[in-house]
Each structure stands twice: as C-alpha cells, then as structure tokens.
Amino acid sequence: MEKFPEFALENQNGTVITNKDLDGVTIIYFYPKDNTPGCTTQACDLRDNMDDLNSLNVTVYGVSGDSKRKHQNFIEKQNLNFDLLVDEDFKLSGELDVYKLKKVFGKESMGIVRTTFIVDKDSNILKRFDNVKAKEHINDVKEFLNEVG
Fold first, then answer.
1. Which residues sit opposite 59 in a β-bridge?
2. Which family does it belong to (predicted)?
3. Digit-coded pLDDT (tens) for 72-93
C-alpha cells in the first residue's frame, strides 16, 4: 500500500502538524487558493458535513500554498471547523505530484491541482481522488468512507 510522505506543516495558528498527528482516518485535501469560488464550495461542503465525518472518526486538513494569515481569514470568513495547513514552498504538494502546470482561462502557471487523499493512522493512502470537482466531492468522499468504515 502506498504511503503518504512524511510531512511537518504549520496550521493557520502556527502549530506544526505531522504524520504523528494522524489519528484514525484523515482526509487531507489539496486545493489551489483560499477564498476562491471552487475552493470555498469544497471547504464549506466539508464544514457542513463535519458531524457525519466526526461520527466516522474522520479528521480533515486542507492544504494550499497560502500563508497562515490567509488561512486564518478564510477560516473566519467561512466559519470553517477544521485546520488548514501551509505548504508555501509546495514541497509536500510536489512530492505527491499535485503541484503541476495548469491552464486557467488560457493562461499556464504552476499551481495545486485539486486532489484529496484519505489516509489511515499509519500514513497508508486508502484512496486518492484526482482532479476533484468541488461540487460533487463530499458525496464521493462520504461514499468511500462508508464503504471502508
């Protein structure tokens, strides 16, 4: 089984989160940018389904290249109930091959491609969702968690 790489990333408050913090099943989702329409939809869907996820003993972390301050603003503005991790150097995103050349509105640039990992407490990757569509994503995630739950 493929392993999630070792990592140590700060959350929005500067607390360092590592693989050792993975307890039970964890959703680690990578998204392009705080406070953009698709990323807000995805984050709010996770927020609104947190009771269901908690009942399955699932923890959620969002990861982007945004700063702690931007993460704090996003959390406050959207009333998010999970941590956002800072990957400003895109080291973890690069290791997982989710930091890629993207074409947005005809313009090419490097960025995070929306990708979700479901990981167990031993850092085993149980499922990888590539090229995630923000709107349907929570249903796909819950369906998978109910199958393995």
1. 26
2. Belongs to the peroxiredoxin family. BCP/PrxQ subfamily.
3. 999 999 999 999 999 999 999 9
- Residue 1 resides in a domain: no
Is residue 43 included in any domain, yes or no? yes
Residue 59 and residue 72: Cα distance in Å, rounded?
A: 18
Q: Tell me the C-alpha distance between 44 and 23, whole Å.
A: 23
39 is catalytic: yes
Residue 19 maps to which CATH number? 3.40.30.10
Total tally of structural domains belonging to the chain? 1
DSSP code of 117? E
Active-site choice (9, 25, 39, 112): 39
Give the pLDDT mean for 35-42.
93
- Specify the pLDDT at position 122: 96
Instruction: Return the number of other C-beta atoms located less than 10 Å from residue 93's C-beta.
Output: 21
What phi-psi label fits residue 106: left (phi over 0), alpha (psi between -120 and 50 degrees) or beta? left
Domain presence at residue 2: no
Q: Is residue 94 part of a domain?
A: yes
Enumerate residues 6+ apart whose C-beta is below 8 A from 71. Answer: 11, 12, 34, 64, 84, 85, 86
What is the domain extent for residue 65?
A: 8-148
